[in-house]
Amino acid sequence: DELISQIAAGEVVERPASVVRELVDNALDAGAKNVLVKLMAGGVRAIVVEDDGCGIPVTQLPLALKRHATSKIASLGELESVATMGFRGEALAAIASVSEMSVASRTADAAHAHRLDARSGELSAAARSRGTSVEVRELFFATPARRKFLKTDATELAHCVEAVRRHALARPDVGFAIWHEGKLVDQWRAASVEQRISDVLGEDFVHDSRAFEHSAGPLGVIRPPGQANVLAAPRGGQGNLGRPGISLTGRAGLPEASRSRADQQYVWVNGRYVRDKLISHAIRSAYEDVLHGQRQPSYVLFIEIAPELVDVNVHPTKIEVRFRDGRAIHQAVRRAFIDALAQSRS
Ligand code: ADP
Ligand code: MG
Hints:
Strand order of the largest sheet: 5-4-3-6-2-1-7-8
Strand content: 15-25%
Bound molecules: adenosine-5'-diphosphate, magnesium ion
Low-confidence stretches: 219-242
Shape: globular
């Protein structure tokens, strides 16, 4: 069983950055306003993620570490409309099976925090304010084959920082800080969308890009950007508003920009960072259409779509999604970029 869970963990936990991503997902699902990430040796030696979210009741702590235990959906039907980052109930169990993990947490009404050590199952009193701290040490210590595949600490650190960056861009309302070996690497205070993009991607990026806002179809059940992960989607909200639609916002990098960077291409669907061939194709074709070239544009694109129109349960790491109506998405994305680029020329 230990072996099976370690194999399963391989699908979720590839490297320190995967751990960072899952733990920050959980912090955001818990309604955190501040998320602190502390790393040692690129995250291989230690990853600590602290949040000021709702915390885990002590009675639920052991359950939270069990496989397929999630507090986020109660039935398969709810998967259709999942509004949280997590829902598979796999991450904590998977991480625990390939590391030394402990979780300390405190809810608002608890007299103090509790810490649960994953390996020993030992529960002890701990000191912290409301929220949760997850500590992950010695990743892959028991699976040397996997550990061998890790790159240098500097490279693993860069991947960890990138994971936080993706969260930070999607959630400007939340403050983030990343520490490595006791030194502050990056810090982003809660800000407007525009300011956060500038803080994370640089003033140049904002200067050399055009904002766009595009929607297709009635916007019945779409949640405002930035709140996508905290609030549950209103059930049946589309009711008499007709078909749910798509909202696209973001910034399209301009061709005039001297440094156009392929490493600044970001797409989120309902707050979740994704990689999607259909979407990148639509964007590339817009650039080709308007500008006859510019193959490596920089861009950020936030897609908000009714959760029932997108399947997020395609891949264990949830980086891939499947749209119910891929053609409509392709068209809307293409249109949004064409409009932004055409505008910038006039
Ligand atoms: P999932 O996020 O898919 O539900 P996880 O294994 O990531 O699965 O987490 C299991 C459960 O532990 C969550 O459903 C949640 O109830 C709880 N949990 C994990 N991390 C936190 C956190 N930072 N704050 C509050 N609750 C948490
Ligand atoms: Mg999770």
